[in-house]
Amino acid sequence: MGIFGGTKSTNTKYFERFLTEGEEIEAVYRLVVDEMCFTNKRIIFFDKNAFSTKKGKVSIPYRSISHFMIEDDGILDRDIEIKLIVHNEEFVLKFSKGCDFIEIEKLLTFYVCD
User: Fold this and answer.
1) For residue 45, what are the β-bridge partners?
2) CA distance 24 to 26
3) How many of the other CB atoms lie within 10 Å of CB of 53?
4) Residues 83, 90 contacting (CB under 8 angstroms)
5) In whole angstroms, what is the distance from residue 72 CA to residue 88 CA?
6) What one-character-per-residue DSSP string does 34-98 give?
7) Which strands sit side by side in the sheet containing 2-9, from one edge to the other?
8) Which of 8, 22, 93, 114 qualifies as a cystine partner to 82, CB 3.0-4.6 A?
9) How far apart are CA 84 and CA 55, in angstroms?
10) Domains in the chain and their CATH numbers?
């Protein structure tokens, strides 16, 4: 599964309808097709199948993430990949250059390593 994308967004209204009691938005990142949201409880994003017009909402509680890895594609190509391992399933989130992956790593470390 993959998401391709970009930079931090200030558009939090879209995700507010998905929040539960006591849940707060930490950060939203703009992606090529959609956006992804980090809350104080989980990660929310939409997974669009390349061969279909359907897309599904994916909600991953931080407690379900066993580990994560951040890969830099190299010196010339500055795309960043973040891999989340959840119950032996891998979610690959692809961000283009300009994305502050250090901030994302800090968010993940804070909630996953709690």
Assistant:
1) 58
2) 6
3) 6
4) yes
5) 22
6) SEEEEESSEEEEEEE-TTSS-EEEEEEEGGGEEEEEEEE--SS---EEEEEEETTEEEEEEE-TT
7) 55-61, 42-48, 35-39, 25-31, 2-9, 89-95, 80-86, 65-72
8) 93
9) 19
10) 2-112 (2.30.29.50)
pLDDT in tens, 8-17: 676 788 899 9
The pTM of this model reads 0.80
Residue type, position 86, single letter: V
Tell me the C-alpha distance between 94 and 81, whole Å.
Answer: 5
Q: Count CB neighbours of 21 within 10 A.
A: 4
Which conformational region is residue 87 in: left (phi greater than 0), alpha (psi within -120 to 50 degrees), or beta?
left
Q: Which of 95, 91, 50, 89 is nearest to 73 (CA)?
A: 95
Q: Locate tokens 């929310």: which residue?
A: 44
Looking at this protein, which amino acid is placed at residue 36?
Answer: M
